[in-house]
Write a structure and sequence with these properties.
The complex is a heterodimer of chains A (501) and B (301). By secondary structure, chain A is an alpha/beta fold. Chain A has 18 helices and 16 strands. Chain A has a domain of 234 residues: Rossmann fold (3-Layer(aba) Sandwich). In chain A, α4 crosses α14, α14 packs across α15 and α17 crosses α18. The chains are: A alpha/beta (501), B mainly alpha (301).
């Protein structure tokens, strides 16, 4: 990792803005009212709810302007403007990079901004405007709002659409898992159900726990608990206690007392960072803070190993709020593409080269989404025959642009694979004293030396899967010593006997 | 025993939070007969302002808290100046523009904090630790009671006593009560009604700031909580009786007890907590709209 990459990484870790995942969690909840209103309006005024998009999208070529355009629906102003800035940086970089390398089929590329703020109805309106604009070859949804409401229009118009941040897959709303879903939607967001799966596997196969407790936000009820229980059953985990809490609950005492009675070895927490911090402080008050795996398994005391929500425990913010009560080893799931400091990832360098700025993380999704659409237009040889563009996305094979590779097919509309996932653990800048010891990654002895604590990549748990998909990146991680690594066994494999994680 | 102890502690802590917010509503309602729907946001804005001065500007916590109180009082006055004053003389019962104007202030406050400070959840160091060096959590029959929670409960009680004394023992308090009783008569007696009303908004803002610094070490500061906090505090105020100090106390702690009881006796209750609370709210409005301590309005003919 060179100095610039390290600087980018640190900026991202120390970014004082709201993290995008935290924001999207909030936005999805805040959008419930708007979505309900829209649903009611649609019921009351069905004629207004359906636009008159053509059945097949053979649209007129642009007149007098030969630029290839992509429409981007996002939150560019208002409370979510920082996500809009991430989107803008990613797409601007992609546009400049593509134009600098000759454009697409000799044509320059560009994009149209559709600012939806935090308004679901406006997001849908912007989508409709782009879908009916003959100059636009495809649309990117860089906000979770509006994409569900636009599904029927996307289907009718066969509009090539990329969902950069919304997870349609986990709830079975992505084609071909849902055969009625629009075939022209493709997803870059990592599915939430996968993160639950990898945490379950880590809990059972890596840490060897058998009894888990779940403590989750009441708003997640329904499919969430079903998914968690399904993952637990798959790996032979016994769910010994399930508790819920309200958003921003002041008191969690009764729930924590019952969890203590269950004596669960691992506690999965699914909530926003401030709720997570409140829970962690509550555990400290009960004298139940996590110490290490052997203690978590000891039935004579309760010190559960905390794991859970990437938007709660995977963020640095929960630890900022919990202070000293945040314990090393607290685990969550992430994806390899989040490790921006790795030398293989090109986007940070391009941003510096073309825009003269550093990223704050998350720019890879919009950039790769943009690249996917314009590359499909190039492969299809047309920007106006939407069928051909969608086919080109499905048959484009393995692609790589800003960082991690991705691959869509007719039977797979997800960019990412489960092999992309990694576990992250909360670390302080000095390793806990354990036997056998573990070693913090190279980034901690360089730029992170000034950072007191941070979630960081835990190398071992999904290493074989990561290797299968990205052997070169894993080779760099292992050779240069990025991410937290445990003592190696005599055969060279990384030890699972790490006490903390 | 642990269960009962936990129930009592949870009731006191949750009740204190709700009573503090209900108190803010009452302060404004008593002089204007309107509900300041920006009150929940004022608590959060005060928390962010204090955090900004303490963490971002590096001020000592004591100065940050004091400045947070002053600035929050100013926020209260600004809310009055832009949401109420322009409406002129009006009857809150028939002219309901104040609902929109106070709620708009909520949105404006959120946007400004996001623009100039942050919208990310933050926390403040416990005053108990900073001022008294208390860090040790006490176990009461197996239920933890940490100093931050103890400070919240005690702080709330002190605020209530102080405000009650202000209302009953000082000239300013009498002016507040006079305006609450009859604005016209108070005005004829030489009381500057606008000043008193602005004062009630300032006092509500200052109370919000104290509530914020007591609550932040436990729950953190964030705008997601502002709306919920505002609504639940409002329900507590209605339950106890709008305009009544005793009502705010009883309403807040009763709601706190109900919430804690539900969580204690029915583990699945957390999913339905809002259902129970809002159901209770509707029941109160239907069967006892003046709450426990509110006085029914009597129209003289």
């Amino acid at each position: 990792m060179n100095d610039r990459q390290l600087y980018d990484f640190l900026l991202r870790q120390k970014n004082p803005d709201v993290s995008r995942r935290y924001f999207f969690k909030w936005l999805t909840k805040a959008g419930v009212g708007g979505m309900s209103a829209l649903t009611l309006a649609n019921m009351a005024f069905p004629g207004c709810a359906q636009s008159n998009l053509p059945e097949v999208g053979l649209i007129k070529p642009p007149a007098g302007n030969d630029e290839l355009l992509i429409g981007v629906v996002g939150a560019f102003t208002g409370i979510g403007a920082f996500v809009g800035r991430i989107t803008e940086r990613g797409i601007d970089t992609a546009v400049r990079r593509i134009n600098a390398t000759g454009g697409v089929g000799g044509r320059k590329v560009n994009w149209l901004k559709g600012d939806a703020g935090t308004d679901t109805a406006l997001a849908r309106q912007k989508f409709t405007e782009f879908a009916q604009d003959p100059r636009v070859a495809g649309i990117i949804f860089a906000t979770p709002l509006g994409i569900n409401e636009s599904r029927q229009d996307i289907k009718r118009g066969n509009v090539p659409t990329i969902s950069t941040f919304a997870d349609l897959f986990s709830s079975g709303r992505l084609f071909p898992e849902d055969p009625d879903a629009p075939r022209s939607i493709f997803q870059f967001a990592i599915p939430g159900s996968w993160t639950i799966d990898i945490i379950a596997r880590y809990t059972r196969e890596d840490r060897g726990y058998s009894k888990i407790g779940i403590l989750y936000l009441a708003l997640l009820a329904g499919d969430f608990e079903k998914t968690v229980r399904g993952a637990a059953a798959k790996y032979g985990l016994d769910v010994v206690a399930t508790e819920v809490f309200q958003l921003n609950a002041t008191e969690l005492g009764p729930q924590l007392q019952r969890l203590r009675s269950s004596n669960c070895e691992a506690l999965w927490i699914y909530g926003l960072p401030n709720d997570t911090a409140n829970i962690v402080k509550g555990l400290a008050g009960l004298g139940a803070s996590y110490i290490d795996t052997p203690t978590a398994k000891d039935p004579s005391s309760w010190h559960p190993h905390l794991m859970g929500d990437p938007a709660g425990l995977g963020e640095r913010q929960w630890a900022v709020l919990a202070g000293e009560d945040a314990k090393v080893g607290t685990a969550s799931a992430y994806h390899l593409g989040g490790l921006l400091y790795l030398p293989e990832f090109k986007l940070a360098g391009w941003m510096q080269e073309y825009l003269g700025i550093s990223g704050t993380g998350g720019e890879d999704g919009p950039a790769d989404s943009y690249y996917t659409l314009v590359k499909a237009v190039e492969d299809a040889g047309t920007a106006t025959d939407r069928d051909k563009v969608v086919n080109a996305i499905e048959t484009g094979g393995e692609r790589s642009f800003s960082g991690l590779g991705f691959n869509f097919t007719a039977q797979r509309h997800l960019a990412r694979s489960q092999d992309d996932q990694v576990m992250v653990t909360f670390e302080r800048n000095t390793p806990e004293k354990t036997d056998p010891p573990y070693q913090l990654g190279k980034e901690w002895s360089q730029g992170l030396a000034g950072v007191p604590f941070n979630p960081t990549h835990l190398v071992r748990p999904n290493l074989e899967a990561n290797k299968r998909r990205y052997p070169e990146i894993v080779a760099t991680i292992l050779k240069d010593g990025y991410g937290t690594q445990c003592t190696k066994e005599p055969d060279g494999t990384l030890s699972k006997r790490c006490k903390v994680h | 025993m642990t269960t009962i102890s936990q129930l009592i502690i949870s009731s006191l802590v949750t009740g204190s939070v709700l009573a503090l917010v209900a108190f803010g509503y009452n302060l404004v309602y008593s002089t204007t007969r309107i509900i300041n729907f920006a009150q929940g946001a004022t608590v959060v804005v005060a928390g962010y302002l204090t955090w900004y001065m303490n963490v971002k500007q590096g001020w000592p916590i004591l100065w940050s808290v004091l400045m947070g109180i002053v600035l929050s009082a100013l926020v209260g006055i600004v809310v009055w100046a832009i949401a109420i004053l322009p409406l002129g003389q009006f009857d809150p019962a028939t002219n309901i523009g104040w609902i929109l104007t106070t709620f708009s202030c909520f949105i404006i406050a959120q946007t400004l904090v996001g623009r100039f400070i942050t919208l990310e959840a933050q926390t403040l160091p416990p005053l108990s630790e900073n001022f008294l060096g208390l860090t040790k959590t006490t176990q009461i029959f197996g239920a933890p009671f940490d100093p931050a929670r103890a400070f919240l409960v005690i702080g709330t009680i002190i605020i209530m006593i102080a405000l009650e004394l202000l209302y009953s023992k000082t000239i300013t308090g009498r002016a507040f009560r006079a305006v609450a009783e009859d604005r016209m008569a108070a005005s004829l007696m030489g009381i500057n009604v606008n000043m008193v009303v602005a004062g009630s908004f300032a006092l509500a803002g200052a109370t919000a700031a104290i509530g914020a610094v007591l609550l932040a070490p436990i729950q953190g500061i964030n705008f997601i909580s502002a709306l919920l906090l505002g609504i639940q505090g409002f329900i507590a105020a209605v339950l106890g009786g709008l305009g009544s100090t005793k009502g705010a106390i009883v309403g807040g702690y009763l709601m706190g007890f109900l919430k804690a009881l539900l969580l204690t006796i029915a583990p699945e209750a957390a999913s339905y907590e809002q259902l129970v609370i809002f159901g209770l709210f509707i029941a109160v409005l239907l069967f006892r709209p003046t709450g426990f301590f509110g006085e029914p309005a009597v129209e003289k003919v």
